[in-house]
Each structure stands twice: as C-alpha cells, then as structure tokens.
Design goal:
Blueprint: E1 3-7, E2 10-13, E3 18-25, E4 33-39, E5 46-52, E6 58-60, E7 68-73, E8 78-83, E9 92-99, E10 116-117, E11 121-126
Parallel strand pairs: 2-11
Antiparallel strand pairs: 1-3, 3-8, 4-5, 4-9, 5-6, 7-8, 9-10, 9-11
Length: 127
C-alpha cells in the first residue's frame, strides 16, 4: 500500500508563489503517472497537472498553463507543483494522486484515472 502525503500549502497574496510537495511511501514506487487536482468549496474536483513518472511528459489545465509547473524527483519518490503568479481563483484544497493501474479508459485529466490519493493541502490566495 502506498501513502501519498502533500505539504507546502498555505496563505499567499495574489501574484505570489508556493511549491507543493507530494511524497510517496509504503512500497516500491512504480506509478505510471502522478497528478495534481484541486477542489474549491462548492465545486467539483478539477484537474490541474499530470506527469508521466518514467519519461516526465507533462500536461496542464488551461487555467494554470504558463503559471504552474509539475515535476518529479525519482530518487525521493516525490512530485512537486510549483505555483507562480497565484490568483484568488486558485484557492482550493490541492490533492496529489497516483495512477498505478494504468486505467487508460479514462483521460489523464479525469480523477477516475487515479487510484491512490493524498489527504490534500489547503492553498489560499488573498486578493
């Protein structure tokens, strides 16, 4: 069983930056891909970014493209989300997720693609 633990959330002003981390532990880590999702109050969970673990290809939601960067450290079994030029609409709980099963029936942007989730970390951007 793999556990995912997010960290790095907090309160930041508009235009500021934060870096989220997601550390995986529990067994040999052989995720196919990792993703970041977010959920604002009263809204559905939405895709933010994803990265293929092996060769590092990335995809982003249009709303964060050019501002956020997803990366991974294979040696540390950790994925990061660098968030720059933050806006109030980025305020949400951010979740890390892992795709171990390779559910290719679902898009990489669908939460159903991912079978393991972290507990989430709050990001609040003040105006």
């Amino acid at each position: 069983q793999v556990q995912l633990v997010e960290s790095g959330g907090g309160l930041v002003q508009t235009g500021g930056s934060l870096r989220l981390s997601c550390a995986a532990s529990g067994r040999t880590f052989n995720s196919i891909r990792m993703g970041w999702f977010r959920q604002a109050p009263g809204k559905e969970r939405e895709f933010v970014a994803t990265i293929r673990w092996t060769h590092g290809s990335t995809y982003y939601a249009d709303s964060v493209k050019g501002r956020f960067t997803i990366s991974r450290d294979n040696a540390k079994n950790t994925v990061y989300l660098q968030m720059n030029s933050l806006k109030p609409e980025d305020t949400a709980v951010y979740f890390c997720a892992a795709d171990f099963a390779g559910r290719t029936d679902w898009s990489y942007a669908s939460a159903r693609r991912y079978d393991t989730w972290g507990q989430g970390t709050q990001v609040t951007v003040s105006s």
